[in-house]
Amino acid sequence: METESKQLGERTSGKRPGFTKDKTLQSILNLDMVKDKTPDEIAQIWNMYFASKNTISAVIPSTTFELMYSRSQRCPTFLYTLPRQSGYEFFVGQWSTTELHFSSLINLQSLGENSPSQLIIYHYPDLQKEKGIVLLTAEIDTTFLSVQDAQCLANEAQLFYATDCQRTFNLVETFNHEPNEFKHMSVIAEIEQHGIGGQLMKEENKQT
User: Fold this and answer.
1) What is the Cα–Cα distance from 51 to 109, expressed in whole angstroms?
2) Among 125, 129, 140, which Cα is nearest to 24's?
3) Angle at which helices 2-11 and 166-177 pack, to 10 degrees?
4) Pairing status of strand 87-96 against strand 99-104
């Protein structure tokens, strides 16, 4: 499964119909209006804007994004997991420049290169040099994923790509460069250790 997901992940690049093509920061935020704002003020504006929308948002320190981005160049693909009532559902995340595309492993196995993205996380480094922050938002195919699912996957991406723990990032390196040595249960163990997905599991339990 690990080898197959790696190969499929390398081919996933399609966006789902309805997702915005070439979604720029300027199309969301008037950059001229925030040029005199502090990073904290911009973060407040950004998160307030998305608070009522069916998506996620975040403001990432420049140093954190630089680490994630540099690692994504060497290791663009990884296997993520979401806790479900009956176990776990796996997703392949594939970096494309500053975008992170997700598609479920089962979709990739059945549709291959024709599998569309079910979640795209956008990172905007437009203010990185001047303000020291990178803005994040996402487009979600809510047919398959909830906002809580998207937040969980975004948290996992930061856990694995921005970690200071080499052992954690070793999982990403192994997946990309030694797929035959990769163990998918290691991903589950890592997110359980860090408590990621706990709230999602509570939501799953409420629904049953």
Assistant:
1) 35
2) 125
3) 80
4) antiparallel
Of 87, 66, 84, 91, nearest in space to 153 by CA: 91
Give 114's contacts (C-beta < 8 A, 6+ positions apart): 14
CA gap 133, 60 in Å, rounded: 6
Pairwise CA distance, residues 105 & 154, whole Å: 17
Give the pLDDT confidence of 37-92 residue by residue, as tens digits. Answer: 999 999 999 999 999 899 999 999 999 999 999 999 999 999 999 999 889 999 99
What pTM, to 2 d.p., does this model score?
0.86
CA distance 64 to 83: 26
